[in-house]
Amino acid sequence: MSTRLAKPAVILIFLSLMATLVGAVKFSSCEESFWATPDQYVHACYSDIPSLYGERELDDDRWSYSSTTNAVEYPVLTGTVMWFFARVIPSSENEMLNYYRINQIFLAGLFLFIAFIVYRIKPEFAYLSAIAPAAIASLYINWDLWAIASMMLSIYWFDRKKYTHSALAMGISISTKFLPIFLLLPIALILWRRNEIRELARYLGLTVATFLLFNVPVMLTTPEGWLRFYQLNFDRGEDWGSLWYAFSSLGVNLGNTNFFAILALAVAVLVVSLLIFSTKETVQLADVSFIVLALVMIASKVYSPQYVLWLVPLAVIAMTRRKDVHAFWVWQIAEVIYHIAIWQHLATVTGAKFGLPLTGYALISLLRIAACLYFVVVLIKKASKDGQFPHEFLFKSADSYP
Prior knowledge:
mainly alpha
Protein backbone atom coordinates (compact mmCIF):
# COMPACT_ATOMS: atom_id res chain seq x y z
CA MET A 1 0.00 0.00 0.00
CA SER A 2 1.38 3.42 -0.92
CA THR A 3 2.11 6.15 1.64
CA ARG A 4 -0.75 8.19 0.17
CA LEU A 5 -3.25 5.46 0.97
CA ALA A 6 -1.75 4.40 4.28
CA LYS A 7 -2.94 7.41 6.30
CA PRO A 8 -6.65 7.13 5.28
CA ALA A 9 -6.49 3.39 5.97
CA VAL A 10 -5.12 3.96 9.47
CA ILE A 11 -7.80 6.57 10.15
CA LEU A 12 -10.48 4.16 8.94
CA ILE A 13 -9.20 1.39 11.21
CA PHE A 14 -9.21 3.81 14.14
CA LEU A 15 -12.78 4.97 13.39
CA SER A 16 -13.95 1.37 12.99
CA LEU A 17 -12.33 0.35 16.26
CA MET A 18 -14.00 3.29 18.03
CA ALA A 19 -17.32 2.23 16.50
CA THR A 20 -17.02 -1.29 17.91
CA LEU A 21 -16.26 0.13 21.36
CA VAL A 22 -19.18 2.57 21.22
CA GLY A 23 -21.41 -0.31 20.17
CA ALA A 24 -20.14 -2.40 23.07
CA VAL A 25 -20.95 0.40 25.52
CA LYS A 26 -24.44 0.73 24.03
CA PHE A 27 -25.10 -2.98 24.57
CA SER A 28 -23.37 -3.18 27.97
CA SER A 29 -26.35 -2.13 30.08
CA CYS A 30 -28.00 -5.46 29.28
CA GLU A 31 -24.99 -7.41 30.55
CA GLU A 32 -25.66 -6.19 34.08
CA SER A 33 -29.31 -7.28 34.01
CA PHE A 34 -28.60 -10.43 31.96
CA TRP A 35 -30.98 -9.19 29.27
CA ALA A 36 -34.03 -9.02 31.53
CA THR A 37 -37.34 -8.04 29.93
CA PRO A 38 -38.51 -5.29 29.46
CA ASP A 39 -35.18 -3.66 30.44
CA GLN A 40 -33.42 -4.99 27.33
CA TYR A 41 -35.95 -3.14 25.17
CA VAL A 42 -36.09 0.00 27.29
CA HIS A 43 -32.30 0.34 27.00
CA ALA A 44 -32.26 -0.79 23.34
CA CYS A 45 -29.64 -3.45 24.01
CA TYR A 46 -31.53 -6.59 22.96
CA SER A 47 -29.40 -9.25 21.24
CA ASP A 48 -30.29 -12.61 19.72
CA ILE A 49 -26.94 -13.97 20.91
CA PRO A 50 -27.69 -14.48 24.62
CA SER A 51 -31.38 -15.02 23.92
CA LEU A 52 -30.88 -17.99 21.59
CA TYR A 53 -28.05 -19.44 23.64
CA GLY A 54 -30.61 -20.84 26.06
CA GLU A 55 -33.71 -20.96 23.88
CA ARG A 56 -32.06 -23.17 21.26
CA GLU A 57 -30.35 -25.31 23.93
CA LEU A 58 -26.87 -24.30 22.84
CA ASP A 59 -26.03 -24.09 26.54
CA ASP A 60 -26.35 -27.90 26.61
CA ASP A 61 -23.89 -28.22 23.70
CA ARG A 62 -26.74 -29.36 21.47
CA TRP A 63 -26.02 -29.32 17.72
CA SER A 64 -27.85 -26.39 16.13
CA TYR A 65 -30.01 -28.59 13.88
CA SER A 66 -30.57 -31.70 15.98
CA SER A 67 -34.05 -30.68 17.14
CA THR A 68 -36.97 -31.00 14.74
CA THR A 69 -38.93 -28.21 16.45
CA ASN A 70 -36.27 -26.06 18.10
CA ALA A 71 -33.44 -25.88 15.56
CA VAL A 72 -31.81 -22.50 15.04
CA GLU A 73 -33.53 -20.22 12.55
CA TYR A 74 -30.40 -19.59 10.48
CA PRO A 75 -28.59 -21.27 7.56
CA VAL A 76 -25.94 -23.86 8.29
CA LEU A 77 -22.78 -21.77 8.58
CA THR A 78 -24.37 -19.35 11.03
CA GLY A 79 -25.72 -22.34 12.97
CA THR A 80 -22.23 -23.82 13.01
CA VAL A 81 -20.73 -20.60 14.37
CA MET A 82 -23.42 -20.49 17.07
CA TRP A 83 -22.73 -24.10 18.05
CA PHE A 84 -18.94 -23.81 17.91
CA PHE A 85 -18.72 -20.86 20.29
CA ALA A 86 -21.13 -22.61 22.65
CA ARG A 87 -18.78 -25.59 22.70
CA VAL A 88 -15.55 -23.69 23.30
CA ILE A 89 -16.58 -21.43 26.18
CA PRO A 90 -15.73 -22.88 29.61
CA SER A 91 -18.53 -24.02 31.90
CA SER A 92 -19.28 -21.50 34.62
CA GLU A 93 -22.11 -19.56 36.18
CA ASN A 94 -21.47 -16.79 33.62
CA GLU A 95 -21.73 -19.02 30.56
CA MET A 96 -24.32 -16.87 28.76
CA LEU A 97 -22.28 -13.72 29.31
CA ASN A 98 -19.10 -15.46 28.14
CA TYR A 99 -20.94 -16.74 25.06
CA TYR A 100 -22.10 -13.22 24.23
CA ARG A 101 -18.64 -11.74 24.71
CA ILE A 102 -16.76 -14.24 22.55
CA ASN A 103 -19.29 -13.63 19.77
CA GLN A 104 -18.95 -9.89 20.33
CA ILE A 105 -15.17 -10.02 19.88
CA PHE A 106 -15.44 -11.82 16.55
CA LEU A 107 -18.24 -9.53 15.35
CA ALA A 108 -16.06 -6.52 16.13
CA GLY A 109 -13.26 -8.05 14.08
CA LEU A 110 -15.64 -8.69 11.19
CA PHE A 111 -16.81 -5.07 11.32
CA LEU A 112 -13.22 -3.89 10.89
CA PHE A 113 -12.67 -6.37 8.07
CA ILE A 114 -15.79 -5.18 6.23
CA ALA A 115 -14.70 -1.55 6.61
CA PHE A 116 -11.36 -2.48 5.02
CA ILE A 117 -13.08 -4.16 2.05
CA VAL A 118 -15.22 -1.04 1.62
CA TYR A 119 -12.01 1.00 1.65
CA ARG A 120 -10.55 -1.18 -1.10
CA ILE A 121 -13.64 -0.64 -3.25
CA LYS A 122 -14.48 3.00 -2.51
CA PRO A 123 -11.73 4.68 -0.42
CA GLU A 124 -13.13 8.21 -0.69
CA PHE A 125 -16.35 7.31 1.16
CA ALA A 126 -15.13 4.43 3.30
CA TYR A 127 -15.21 6.51 6.48
CA LEU A 128 -19.03 6.44 6.30
CA SER A 129 -19.08 2.69 6.88
CA ALA A 130 -17.24 3.19 10.18
CA ILE A 131 -19.33 6.06 11.55
CA ALA A 132 -22.85 5.13 10.38
CA PRO A 133 -24.80 5.50 13.65
CA ALA A 134 -27.57 2.99 12.88
CA ALA A 135 -25.00 0.32 12.04
CA ILE A 136 -23.11 0.97 15.28
CA ALA A 137 -26.38 0.74 17.21
CA SER A 138 -27.15 -2.65 15.62
CA LEU A 139 -23.65 -4.09 15.73
CA TYR A 140 -24.19 -6.91 18.22
CA ILE A 141 -27.83 -7.85 17.61
CA ASN A 142 -26.96 -11.14 15.90
CA TRP A 143 -24.54 -12.96 13.60
CA ASP A 144 -25.27 -11.23 10.26
CA LEU A 145 -21.76 -9.76 9.94
CA TRP A 146 -20.40 -13.25 9.15
CA ALA A 147 -22.47 -13.33 5.96
CA ILE A 148 -21.89 -9.66 5.15
CA ALA A 149 -18.10 -10.13 5.22
CA SER A 150 -18.17 -12.93 2.63
CA MET A 151 -20.74 -11.02 0.54
CA MET A 152 -18.50 -7.94 0.40
CA LEU A 153 -15.55 -10.13 -0.61
CA SER A 154 -17.68 -11.62 -3.38
CA ILE A 155 -18.57 -8.17 -4.73
CA TYR A 156 -14.95 -7.03 -4.51
CA TRP A 157 -13.70 -10.04 -6.49
CA PHE A 158 -16.54 -9.98 -9.02
CA ASP A 159 -15.84 -6.40 -10.10
CA ARG A 160 -12.19 -7.38 -10.54
CA LYS A 161 -13.32 -10.31 -12.70
CA LYS A 162 -12.00 -12.89 -10.28
CA TYR A 163 -15.15 -14.91 -10.83
CA THR A 164 -13.98 -18.14 -9.20
CA HIS A 165 -13.12 -16.38 -5.94
CA SER A 166 -16.35 -14.40 -6.09
CA ALA A 167 -18.55 -17.46 -6.67
CA LEU A 168 -16.95 -19.35 -3.78
CA ALA A 169 -17.44 -16.37 -1.46
CA MET A 170 -21.04 -15.99 -2.65
CA GLY A 171 -21.79 -19.65 -1.94
CA ILE A 172 -20.35 -19.23 1.56
CA SER A 173 -22.37 -16.07 2.13
CA ILE A 174 -25.65 -17.69 1.04
CA SER A 175 -24.89 -20.62 3.33
CA THR A 176 -24.47 -18.16 6.19
CA LYS A 177 -27.49 -15.95 5.56
CA PHE A 178 -29.85 -16.35 2.62
CA LEU A 179 -30.15 -12.66 1.62
CA PRO A 180 -27.11 -12.58 -0.74
CA ILE A 181 -28.87 -15.02 -3.08
CA PHE A 182 -30.66 -12.00 -4.55
CA LEU A 183 -27.32 -10.64 -5.79
CA LEU A 184 -27.23 -13.52 -8.25
CA LEU A 185 -29.76 -11.56 -10.31
CA PRO A 186 -27.50 -8.56 -11.07
CA ILE A 187 -24.52 -10.90 -11.40
CA ALA A 188 -26.36 -12.92 -14.05
CA LEU A 189 -27.56 -9.80 -15.88
CA ILE A 190 -24.11 -8.19 -15.87
CA LEU A 191 -22.41 -11.31 -17.25
CA TRP A 192 -25.21 -11.76 -19.77
CA ARG A 193 -24.77 -8.21 -21.01
CA ARG A 194 -21.02 -8.73 -21.27
CA ASN A 195 -21.80 -11.81 -23.36
CA GLU A 196 -19.85 -13.94 -20.89
CA ILE A 197 -22.36 -16.78 -20.96
CA ARG A 198 -19.81 -19.48 -20.18
CA GLU A 199 -18.59 -17.50 -17.17
CA LEU A 200 -22.19 -17.06 -16.06
CA ALA A 201 -22.86 -20.80 -16.14
CA ARG A 202 -19.59 -21.48 -14.34
CA TYR A 203 -20.28 -18.81 -11.72
CA LEU A 204 -23.74 -20.18 -10.93
CA GLY A 205 -22.42 -23.73 -10.90
CA LEU A 206 -19.63 -22.90 -8.45
CA THR A 207 -22.02 -20.96 -6.20
CA VAL A 208 -24.49 -23.84 -6.09
CA ALA A 209 -21.71 -26.40 -5.56
CA THR A 210 -20.31 -24.37 -2.64
CA PHE A 211 -23.78 -24.07 -1.12
CA LEU A 212 -24.35 -27.81 -1.44
CA LEU A 213 -20.93 -28.60 0.01
CA PHE A 214 -21.94 -27.02 3.31
CA ASN A 215 -25.63 -27.87 3.27
CA VAL A 216 -25.86 -31.47 2.05
CA PRO A 217 -24.22 -33.03 5.15
CA VAL A 218 -26.71 -31.22 7.40
CA MET A 219 -29.61 -31.98 5.07
CA LEU A 220 -28.79 -35.70 5.18
CA THR A 221 -28.09 -36.01 8.92
CA THR A 222 -30.68 -33.61 10.38
CA PRO A 223 -33.11 -32.85 7.54
CA GLU A 224 -35.98 -31.46 9.63
CA GLY A 225 -33.70 -29.18 11.61
CA TRP A 226 -32.07 -27.95 8.40
CA LEU A 227 -35.46 -27.29 6.80
CA ARG A 228 -36.83 -25.30 9.76
CA PHE A 229 -35.15 -22.04 8.68
CA TYR A 230 -36.74 -22.18 5.24
CA GLN A 231 -40.16 -23.20 6.57
CA LEU A 232 -40.21 -20.36 9.08
CA ASN A 233 -39.42 -17.81 6.38
CA PHE A 234 -42.03 -19.18 4.00
CA ASP A 235 -44.80 -19.54 6.58
CA ARG A 236 -44.32 -16.24 8.44
CA GLY A 237 -46.90 -13.50 8.05
CA GLU A 238 -46.19 -9.79 8.05
CA ASP A 239 -43.53 -9.16 10.68
CA TRP A 240 -41.61 -6.40 12.45
CA GLY A 241 -40.44 -3.47 10.36
CA SER A 242 -42.08 -4.56 7.12
CA LEU A 243 -44.25 -2.43 4.89
CA TRP A 244 -47.00 -4.99 5.32
CA TYR A 245 -46.87 -4.96 9.13
CA ALA A 246 -47.04 -1.17 9.11
CA PHE A 247 -50.08 -1.18 6.82
CA SER A 248 -51.81 -3.83 8.90
CA SER A 249 -51.09 -1.92 12.12
CA LEU A 250 -52.66 1.20 10.61
CA GLY A 251 -55.79 -0.72 9.64
CA VAL A 252 -54.93 -1.21 5.96
CA ASN A 253 -55.50 -4.94 5.46
CA LEU A 254 -54.31 -6.06 2.04
CA GLY A 255 -55.26 -9.73 2.45
CA ASN A 256 -52.74 -12.23 1.12
CA THR A 257 -49.38 -10.90 2.32
CA ASN A 258 -47.43 -13.52 0.36
CA PHE A 259 -49.03 -12.35 -2.89
CA PHE A 260 -48.23 -8.68 -2.35
CA ALA A 261 -44.70 -9.44 -1.11
CA ILE A 262 -44.03 -11.52 -4.23
CA LEU A 263 -45.58 -8.80 -6.42
CA ALA A 264 -43.37 -6.14 -4.82
CA LEU A 265 -40.34 -8.39 -5.28
CA ALA A 266 -41.24 -8.86 -8.96
CA VAL A 267 -41.39 -5.08 -9.39
CA ALA A 268 -37.98 -4.81 -7.74
CA VAL A 269 -36.57 -7.43 -10.15
CA LEU A 270 -38.00 -5.48 -13.08
CA VAL A 271 -36.48 -2.20 -11.86
CA VAL A 272 -33.04 -3.77 -11.41
CA SER A 273 -33.21 -5.47 -14.81
CA LEU A 274 -34.13 -2.20 -16.54
CA LEU A 275 -31.30 -0.39 -14.79
CA ILE A 276 -28.67 -2.90 -15.83
CA PHE A 277 -29.83 -3.26 -19.44
CA SER A 278 -30.40 0.46 -20.00
CA THR A 279 -26.89 1.60 -19.10
CA LYS A 280 -24.61 3.07 -21.71
CA GLU A 281 -21.81 0.96 -20.26
CA THR A 282 -22.09 -2.20 -18.18
CA VAL A 283 -22.41 -1.33 -14.51
CA GLN A 284 -20.28 -2.74 -11.73
CA LEU A 285 -21.88 -5.04 -9.16
CA ALA A 286 -20.89 -2.51 -6.48
CA ASP A 287 -23.04 0.11 -8.24
CA VAL A 288 -26.30 -1.82 -7.96
CA SER A 289 -26.00 -4.13 -4.94
CA PHE A 290 -27.48 -1.58 -2.53
CA ILE A 291 -30.45 -0.98 -4.81
CA VAL A 292 -31.09 -4.72 -5.14
CA LEU A 293 -30.98 -5.59 -1.43
CA ALA A 294 -32.77 -2.42 -0.34
CA LEU A 295 -35.70 -3.19 -2.63
CA VAL A 296 -35.72 -6.84 -1.55
CA MET A 297 -35.81 -5.84 2.12
CA ILE A 298 -38.61 -3.34 1.55
CA ALA A 299 -40.64 -5.98 -0.32
CA SER A 300 -39.97 -8.63 2.33
CA LYS A 301 -42.37 -9.76 5.05
CA VAL A 302 -39.84 -8.74 7.71
CA TYR A 303 -37.43 -5.78 7.82
CA SER A 304 -35.29 -6.37 10.89
CA PRO A 305 -33.36 -3.50 12.55
CA GLN A 306 -29.99 -5.21 11.90
CA TYR A 307 -30.63 -5.17 8.14
CA VAL A 308 -28.94 -1.77 8.18
CA LEU A 309 -25.67 -3.66 8.70
CA TRP A 310 -26.11 -5.15 5.23
CA LEU A 311 -27.05 -1.91 3.55
CA VAL A 312 -24.43 0.49 4.97
CA PRO A 313 -21.36 -1.01 3.22
CA LEU A 314 -23.38 -1.47 0.03
CA ALA A 315 -24.55 2.14 0.19
CA VAL A 316 -20.99 3.41 0.60
CA ILE A 317 -19.61 1.49 -2.39
CA ALA A 318 -22.56 2.66 -4.54
CA MET A 319 -21.84 6.39 -4.06
CA THR A 320 -19.66 8.39 -6.43
CA ARG A 321 -20.51 12.06 -5.73
CA ARG A 322 -19.94 13.94 -2.50
CA LYS A 323 -23.08 16.03 -2.87
CA ASP A 324 -25.18 12.86 -2.66
CA VAL A 325 -23.83 12.00 0.80
CA HIS A 326 -26.76 13.99 2.22
CA ALA A 327 -29.10 11.14 1.18
CA PHE A 328 -26.97 8.72 3.16
CA TRP A 329 -27.46 10.83 6.29
CA VAL A 330 -31.18 11.30 5.69
CA TRP A 331 -31.46 7.52 5.56
CA GLN A 332 -29.25 7.02 8.61
CA ILE A 333 -31.29 9.48 10.69
CA ALA A 334 -34.46 7.59 9.77
CA GLU A 335 -32.77 4.29 10.67
CA VAL A 336 -31.72 5.62 14.08
CA ILE A 337 -35.26 6.86 14.75
CA TYR A 338 -36.57 3.42 13.79
CA HIS A 339 -33.97 1.70 15.97
CA ILE A 340 -35.25 3.60 18.98
CA ALA A 341 -38.89 3.09 17.95
CA ILE A 342 -38.88 -0.69 17.64
CA TRP A 343 -37.29 -1.26 21.04
CA GLN A 344 -39.58 1.25 22.76
CA HIS A 345 -42.59 -0.36 21.13
CA LEU A 346 -41.44 -3.81 22.25
CA ALA A 347 -40.92 -2.37 25.73
CA THR A 348 -44.58 -1.39 25.73
CA VAL A 349 -45.64 -4.83 24.46
CA THR A 350 -43.65 -6.56 27.23
CA GLY A 351 -45.01 -4.53 30.14
CA ALA A 352 -42.88 -1.39 30.45
CA LYS A 353 -44.57 1.64 31.98
CA PHE A 354 -43.57 3.86 29.09
CA GLY A 355 -42.99 3.17 25.42
CA LEU A 356 -44.20 3.71 21.91
CA PRO A 357 -47.74 2.69 20.91
CA LEU A 358 -48.42 0.63 17.80
CA THR A 359 -49.61 3.51 15.61
CA GLY A 360 -46.45 5.52 16.28
CA TYR A 361 -44.29 2.48 15.57
CA ALA A 362 -46.09 1.81 12.28
CA LEU A 363 -45.68 5.42 11.11
CA ILE A 364 -41.96 5.40 11.95
CA SER A 365 -41.61 2.10 10.05
CA LEU A 366 -43.04 3.85 6.98
CA LEU A 367 -40.68 6.79 7.54
CA ARG A 368 -37.73 4.40 7.56
CA ILE A 369 -38.86 2.73 4.33
CA ALA A 370 -39.48 6.11 2.67
CA ALA A 371 -35.96 7.30 3.59
CA CYS A 372 -34.44 4.13 2.16
CA LEU A 373 -36.43 4.53 -1.06
CA TYR A 374 -35.31 8.17 -1.25
CA PHE A 375 -31.69 7.04 -1.12
CA VAL A 376 -32.35 4.47 -3.85
CA VAL A 377 -33.88 7.16 -6.08
CA VAL A 378 -30.95 9.51 -5.44
CA LEU A 379 -28.50 6.80 -6.50
CA ILE A 380 -30.45 6.13 -9.69
CA LYS A 381 -30.69 9.83 -10.57
CA LYS A 382 -27.02 10.32 -9.76
CA ALA A 383 -26.10 7.53 -12.15
CA SER A 384 -28.30 9.10 -14.80
CA LYS A 385 -26.61 12.49 -14.47
CA ASP A 386 -23.18 10.87 -14.49
CA GLY A 387 -24.00 9.33 -17.85
CA GLN A 388 -24.26 5.71 -16.74
CA PHE A 389 -28.03 5.51 -17.11
CA PRO A 390 -29.75 7.19 -20.06
CA HIS A 391 -31.78 10.00 -18.51
CA GLU A 392 -34.38 9.96 -21.25
CA PHE A 393 -35.07 6.25 -20.63
CA LEU A 394 -35.46 6.20 -16.84
CA PHE A 395 -36.66 9.71 -16.07
CA LYS A 396 -38.66 10.59 -19.14
CA SER A 397 -41.46 13.01 -18.34
CA ALA A 398 -45.04 11.93 -18.85
CA ASP A 399 -45.49 14.59 -21.57
CA SER A 400 -42.78 12.91 -23.65
CA TYR A 401 -44.79 9.75 -24.22
CA PRO A 402 -47.21 9.49 -27.15
